Every structure is written in structure tokens, then in C-alpha cells.
Amino acid sequence: MADTTSSAIAVSPALAKPRVDLLIEQLARRSESIAIPVGAIIVGLAIFSVFLLCLGKSPVDFLSLMYKGGFGSSFSLENSLTRASPLLLTALCVALPARLGLVVIGGEGAVVLGGVAAAAVGVPMLGLPYVLVIGAMGIAGMAAGGVWIGIVGALRHYRGVNETIASLLMAYVGIALMNHFVEGPLRDPASLNKPSTYPIGKDYMIGNIPGMDVHWGLVAGIVACIASWVLIEKTTWGFAARISGGNVRAAQIQGLAVGPLIVGFTALAGAFAGLAGMIEVGAVQGDANASLAAGYGYTGILVAFLARHNPLAIMPVALLLGGIDAAGGLVQRRMGLPDATVLVLEGMLFIVILFSETLYGRFKLFNPDLWLRNRQ
Amino acid sequence: MSDAGAIGLWGVPLAILGGAIRVSTPFIFVSLGETITERSGRINLGLEGTLVFGAMIGYATAVLSGSPWLGILAAAASGLGFGLFHGWICKFPKVNDIAIGIALMQFGTGIAFFFGKPFIQPVAPHLPSLPLGWWSSVPQVQAALDVNVLFLIGIVLALLLAWAFRNTKVGLIIRVVGDSADAARAMGLNPNTVRLLATAAGGALAGIGGAYLSLYYPGSWTERISSGQGLMAVALVIFARWNPIGCFLAALLFGGAGALGPALQSVGVTQGYYLFYAAPYVLTLLIMIATSSPTRALTGAPGELSITK
Fold first, then answer.
1. What is the model's pLDDT at position A372?
2. Is the pLDDT of residue A240 over 90?
3. DSSP-assigned letters across all residues of A259-317
4. Which of A159, A283, A292, B74 minimizes the number of CB atoms within 10 Å of its CB?
5. pLDDT in tens, B31-76
6. Does the pLDDT value for residue B131 go beyond 70?
7. Backbone torsions φ then ψ of A209, nearest 5 degrees
8. H helix or E strand, kind and range, residue A342
9. pLDDT band with cut points at 50, 70 and 90 for residue A150
10. Hey, are the CB atoms on B274 and A179 less than 8 Å from each other?
């Protein structure tokens, strides 16, 4: 009882505060979760610049080429957006389970199996109406991905299997399965150098957004991010998921169905990654082949961690990483750097962003309780 | 068919045995390293990255110096560096050891590809092997028992670690820190320092495991050198219940599973090659499912380990 009275006293002067102060207070609190990641990205770039200097390359060249190749022209921006669209979906594959306290990093498996399932379902249906074929491919891709990651969630909850390791093992199995199908039962005999399934054909490809050289997958990714945000922040399921993520025991005591929540969220996460695979097949490749394992699942991990598992923040971060990917080729050619340069940069950003977790709550600036009190 | 023709289908188990010895060696080193780290209460998923970097730096050093043993040394030193970094960064509050491991996995792989590009072409001297199959005149037996030196060192290391955990002061310190950081502090030990050193030791062993890949089997540096051995070894440690001898046996089992595909291929079974390729991963997963439990803590698990909480 003593607790409630003391907190009531603490709250009342705050209510009496002028609105401007409250606004500043809110702004200070909110800006922490933006300022720290942005600062971490800048520090990460600075470390990478030092790395380049050690190799005798100019960081200024690097940054300007990065800007030019990723965001400088409408062409490069469209390229970045195209690369960002699968990242939106694969990042959700990490972010949704993360809200339940699970670290799922095997999105790559769901991507490739989603692509294979989409091709396997779509190819025999060719000749049927466009909407039907694309719809069936989408459902097949999402189902395959959903089952794949849903299994990881179920194993975690009902068998206590560590989800991080299980999901990555499942990714290896998924890639092996894809190779098996693409080079075996589903192979188009006409694909000699690069084993592929039969193509879905030009008429059934997913087109571009009008007026842009970016396919509709971008819209699908944005819709998925917004829907995920609504799900997590505005629905009772999302609320229950966040409680289970905070404390499983507490959630169970409250009578929340933790098992179905975990399986449901991981399955949804996998479905998004599977959709990414389906879009790769439907909008980019035209058939399922080994190029599906292009690392979108792994870059998605970085996107989700940079966005701190917030679906809305995933959108700008995916664009940033898409831009880095898009500019990678140009930077490597112009500066004579190996292909893995982007990997090194991403790895450095990843480490710095994880390290920055320790900074939350350490800066006085973001905690108005500390400086407002002094002023009064 | 012609390869195994002389001894028929007996070629399959022989090839699996030989393959198990060859394929298991990196598993032995990585899992023993991870055992040291996990016994101290931390988990380092970044060993996959350490393994790939160790493979690269080991190969590069062997190419430049002409000595595979210097390569092993360089790989161990680089692994030590990665381990020190992981151990140092994880001591800060709110920094998650699993997530840092994922980041180091990506970073280690990236930086290995970055610097490894010029070493894809040159040929490095290989590590020596002992022909323990000299008594047999069957070439398959000789091939299977052509045992590399690191495998033998791995056996010794497993025995040594099992003994050290039980009987030495260092072993006791690591176990105390892993089971209860509070108890360790009460004894005047600094858990962060112990974990830093344990992670560094684990990294060094993982680096050696990587150098084995590039310097003995498959014996060249490519960007596809590792197929997740570093990660599977982490799962293997859980299966082996943090017991060094168990790690060694589990590594042999995994090596055998990994050798299944190539062995069947050598007698003409090519159907479903990619499915056999997935065998070690499926086996790892099945073992994890069989040995985990949602309700009780795993026997032998260090109390401070985040992965089993």
C-alpha cells in the first residue's frame, strides 16, 4: 500500500507541469531509442573508415561511392528499394520471435523453401487466371516458410530445444532440400548450367509498381511491417506476446497460452520469410534456383537487430542495408576491394549495435527525471 | 563402382570410418573449445566465424611460410583474439552473448573472405598424417586408417581436459564460475576474467579446427570451406553434456554422418545426394530434440549458461 501512495505523490507534480516541459520530457525519452542506434551506425562507419585507412583506401571515397551507389540517383534508389524489399520480410522473421524472447536466425531456410514451394505450386497451374496462380504461389510460399520456422517455435516450447541453433540447422537442411528439389524432382531439363525449376513464364511474373522500377514485393514488405506493428502494439495477442517475452512464468501464471503464442508468432515470422522467397521467384528469378540462398535471411538478422525488433523501424533500416548491398558492387569495382567488403562492414555494424545495448539508460540527457528535478 | 569393387559393399563402412576420422577432427577441436567456454558460463556462437577465419589465416600463413605448423599457430592466435574480443564485449551489462556470437559469426566469415581472396589459388603444404593402416594390403583400409596428427592430438586433449576439469585448480575455478557467479565472487574470483580466458581458450581451439579444414581435409582454402561445423559443434557440446570425452565420441558420430553421402557416392549411389548432405544437420537436430527437455534442467549443464535457462 505504501508503494501506491508514494507513487501517487510522485506523479501529481508532473501533472501540474506546463505542457512544454511534458513535451520536452516525452521527446527526451523517445529520442534515446533513435539516437543510440543512429550513433552506433555512425561509430560503426567510423571504425570501418579506420579499417579502410589501414588498408590505404580513402574512407571519403568509400562513403561518397556508397551514397552514389545506394541513394544518389533515382536509378540507385530504385535498386536499393528492390534489395530492401526481401529484407523487410526476412527482418520480420527475426523481429517477431524476438518480441517473445526468442532468437531465431534461420530465416534463410524459410526463404529458399518458400521459393521452391511457390515454384512447385505455380508451375503446374500455368494457364489458370493470373490472380489465382500468384495467390496460390503466395500461399504455398508462406505455408512452407511458416511450417519451417513454426517447427522451430514448437520445438522450443514443447521440447525445450534451443531455437537459435535449431533454426540455423533447419536453414542448412532447408538449403539442402532446395538443392535436392531443384536438381532432382523439380528440375527443368532445359536448365543446364544453372539447375532450376521450370520457369513460371513472363505472363505470370509479379510486375513493377507503376512509375517505378521496383516490383510489388516492396509494397508487400511495407504492408507486412505495418501489420506486424499493429499486431504487436495494438492487439491483445501482441500484448500477450510481449508479456511472454518479458517473463514466461508471469505469462503462464496469468493464464496466457504461451505455447500457441510462440508457435503462432514463429509460424507467422516464417511465413513472411517464405513470402520473401516466393517474391524472389515471382518477381526476380522467374524460377526457383540456388540463387534463392542469396543471404537475405542473414542480412535480415542484422536489420532486425538494428531496428531493435520494432517493425516500423525495420523499414528505414532495411532501406539503409539495401542501399549498402546495392552500392557494394560499385564500391568494390571502383576501389578495388574484394566482394566481402560489404560483409565486413555489416559485421562491424552488427557488433557495434549489439554493444550499444549497454548504453541504454546511461545518458542523463535521455532521462528527464534526472535533469528536470534539478531545475525545479 | 570400380573404386570399391575389390571389397564390394564393405567399402561403405570403411569409407565411413575413414571419413569419420577425417571429418570429425574439426568437430573435436571446436567442441572441446566450446566446452571450456560453456563450462565457464558463457556461450560463444561465433566459433563458426572463428573457424572460417582460422582456416583462412592458417592457409595463408602456411602458403607464405611453407610450414603448416606455423599455420596452425597463426590460426590458434587469431582464434585467441576472437575469443578475447567476445569475452571482453560480453562483460558489459545488457550485452547478449548469443547475439554477439551471431555478429562475430558474420564478421569472422566476412573478414576471412575479405583477406582470403588472394589465397584461393596458391597451394599450401599439408599437415602430415600417420599411416596406421600399414599392416593391411587393402588400399581402402590403408586409406581409412591414414590418420592425421591433429586427430591424435584431439584425443589427448579430450582426455586431458576431462582430467583437468575434475582434478585441477583451474578446472575447479572454471566450473565454479560456470555454476554460480555469486559463489565465485564469494571465493574472491572475478567471473568476467575467468570467462574472458575461457572464451579465449575456446576460440584458440576453434581456430585450430579451422586450420585443419584448410590444411588437411578438404585441404584447400575456399569460401565454402565450412558448412556450419562451428555451429554444429556448439550443438554437439549440449549433446555431450559438457563432457570432453563425450564431445570426442559425439564428434566421431557426426563425422560418420558427414561421411555418409560421399561414401555412398563412392559405391555408385548418387540418388538424393543432397539429402545425404543434410544428414549431419538432421542428426544434430534429432539429437537436440531427444536430449532436451522443456521442464527440467539438463544434467551436467553449467548453472550460469544462458542457453539452458
1. 67
2. yes
3. HHHHHHHHHHHHHHHHHHHHHIIIIIISS-BGGG-SSHHHHHHHHHHHTTT-HHHHHHH
4. A159
5. 999 999 999 999 999 999 999 999 999 999 999 999 999 999 999 9
6. yes
7. -65, 135
8. helix A341-356
9. very high
10. yes
pTM score of the predicted model: 0.90
In a domain, A355, yes or no: no
Q: CA gyration radius for chain A?
A: 23
Cβ-contact A38, A303 below 8 angstroms: no
Query: Above 60 in pLDDT, residue B258?
Result: yes
Q: Among A238, A224, A206, which Cα is nearest to A318's?
A: A224
Please state the domain count of chain B.
Answer: 1
Residue at A175 is within a domain: yes
ipTM at complex level? 0.90
Interface residues from chain A to B (CB-CB < 8 Å): 103, 105, 155, 157-162, 164-166, 168-170, 172-173, 176-177, 179-180, 183-184, 298, 301-302, 305, 337-344, 346-348, 350-351, 354-355, 357-358, 360
Residue B2 lies in a domain: no
Q: From the CA of A94, how many Å to the nearest CA of chain B?
A: 12
| Within a domain: B280 | yes
Q: How many domains does chain A have?
A: 1
**B36, part of any domain:** yes
Task: Sort A92 into a burial class: Cβ within 10 Å, 0-12 / 13-18 / 19+.
Answer: buried
Average pLDDT rounded to a whole number, residues A73-102: 95
Q: Between A20 and A221, name the one with better pLDDT.
A: A221
- B247 part of a folded domain: yes
- Rounded to the nearest angstrom, the minimum Cα separation between B55 and chain A is 16
Q: How far apart are CA A299 and CA A108, in angstroms?
A: 9
Look at residue A287 and tell me if it is in a domain.
yes
Candidate ranges A131-135, A185-189, B303-307; pick with highest mean pLDDT: A131-135
Q: Tell me the residue range of the domain where B251 lies.
A: 8-125+135-308
Give the domain CATH number at B14. Answer: 1.10.3470
Tell me which of A57, A112, A168, A360 to substitute to probe the interface with B (most B C-beta atoms closer than 10 Å): A168
Q: How far is CA B201 from CA A272, B173, B234, in A?
A: 40, 14, 15
